[in-house]
User: Fold this.
Amino acid sequence: MEWLVFFIGPMGKEKPAKGSTKGVDYTMHLPKLHTFLVDYLKQDHGYQETKNKYFTLTEGRRVGSITLVKSKKKGKDSITILTPFDLYGAGDIPSNVFDAIDDADLVIADLSGNKPAVIYELAFTHALGIETILVGAAEVVSFYLAQSKFINVDFRPKTISSDELRNSFASWLKNRNKLFESENPLQRFYGAPLPDISAAIGLAAGFYDNFARPILTSGEIIHRTQTELTRPLQGLIVLRPKNLASRVEEIREELEKRLLAEFPGEVQYGAPDKLFIRTNEGARMPFFLVRDYLIDIPRTMFSLALSPRLERANRNQTLKSSMEGILIGRFFVGVKQNLKKDRNIKERLFHFGSVAEIPAIIKTGESDTWS
Assistant:
């Protein structure tokens, strides 16, 4: 697995305050943090530095970095640490910094001096749901960060020494993931990173209101042959895809193949005026019916593939795959939130699962949807 760490913080000298002859020099803050982290990974965790001295950001800029690796049972663990000074110079500085933040799995923020530019960058980091470690000198913390964990670091010595910083990074190493759901003020307020919440949750609300809710409140199976047969619906199973890259038709074929193998002679297909789900709000057409379970592939969810942030990640397949998983997860969280709010819905009738999981749901009538 590949991980990226980036630093933000003040990087120059502060002019003396009025009536004073001495300003504050922040020049060595980030280099000291950078050295501290590299030494910590080498000495405490056995990582080894590679010959690779550059990292290519998603937008294509090549910047200085240090990459450390460590072999594990599941493969090689790689941590790249960006050198923030290389982002400054020619070009669009805000875009370079935003690009590095957006690529990062962890941002270490030096809040010394409460600089507006650093607070702005930190807010951007929080909005994306990226994990952060907040450090600084003994100064007043911004109001919005008063409830956040803050590590007081003394930058005056030649090298940093901080057990608290070491422990915080150790905690990140142990618990790190690609979910982008860090605990921060914006995350607490919205419950999800800002780029994810509007698109995924919005599509989930539409899917629930237009499809899932009518089926789960008043849906019944109508099978018209020579006479009309009516049967109660046992439940709604929504397929959860592995990613957003496959076409709906490809997924439908994969699911059909699995269902035919598991339930020979029992797979039925929705057909207008012949086999459909009648609801108080009109007919709803299933992809498949098996043992009176309606199985659906949520077409609307696949428009998440057009997410600007996801398109930006096209150059990095690992990052893109991770983000696709996040967006898919947000969609189903949104559907579940709507179900839980609706007292007319029996939660036990709703399930979701992968192609491999759906047969077991049909056989047992149970899933870990609500776990």
The first helix runs from residue 29 to 45. Residues 194-364 form a domain with the Rossmann fold fold (CATH 3.40.50).
